[in-house]
Automatic annotation (TrEMBL):
This is LysR family transcriptional regulator. Residues 5-62 form the HTH lysR-type domain. It comes from the Bacteria. Transmembrane segments: none annotated. SUPFAM superfamilies: Periplasmic binding protein-like II, Winged helix' DNA-binding domain. It holds the Pfam family HTH_1. Keywords: DNA-binding, Transcription, Transcription regulation. Belongs to the LysR transcriptional regulatory family. The lineage of its organism: Bacteria, Pseudomonadati, Myxococcota, Polyangia, Nannocystales.
Amino acid sequence: MTPFDDLTLLRDFVQIVESGSISAAARTLKVPQPSLSRHLRALEDSCGAALLRRDTHGMCLTEAGHRLLADARVILALADEAAQRLHAEQAALHGHLRLFATIDFGQFTVSRLISRFVQAHPGVTAELGYTNRPATMIQEGYDAGVVVGELTDDSVIARPAGKVVRYVVASPQLLQRQAKAQTPEDLRGWPWLALAGAQFGGSTSVTLTAPKLAAQTIAISPVLVSEGVTSLREAARAGLGVVVLPDWLAREDLVAGRLVRVLPQWNAPELPVHVIYPGQRHLPARVRAFVDFAVTYMTTEMHANA
């Protein structure tokens, strides 16, 4: 062991010299005096020489102590400067982010999220890919993703970021052609539109829940199955069928009267939202910052829309 292996011992030594005594240095550093004495002895042992002479008149540096003090001050100054540069680099994020998100949700909510993050960190650029099959996206080099639905990849770390509220809607024109529905079972024979992907519940059945009532699952035979929920909204607006849509996508059409809720007391199960990132890879500062930002943003956004 050399005298320069432990910066804490060097800092304690400099503080003792600058304070004029071990007891004064201990008060400044807020450590017990015996601990500081042990640190000084450990440093002297590593030097193989006494650094301080102490007598009834006080304390003074030995020749070795003078040399070590000069070197210690230079080393500690360099260490402090390096730490400040590292902190500055962490505070001023820079670099490129490769991100992905679930189709449709990525085009709307996640695009706004990324915009906020890049505006807050002008040194960062980003690209956004869309997929409803995210299992290989991390392996393909993406840094992080925001996905809706049940997770299908157990190799990633997933942080919960809210839930998506969903319900059944249809166009006023379709409702005029169908007998009035009283229960989920009445919807079994209606023309259905469905979102592809088991993580969203599948396209062959629909489960609905209502307060104080048992959940009901009905089998459906969709007239249209799509990987994009926006395309299903457009088909529903055209009167092609009834569909389960997320609240964030259906809300404006409901207000405008282009769509109407069917069985408004019944909802489809909420879908979880997760921010996912690699579990076996060192995360750059920009990725860690994005993940934290995304979890906070999405949780707030989903709560506001609940």
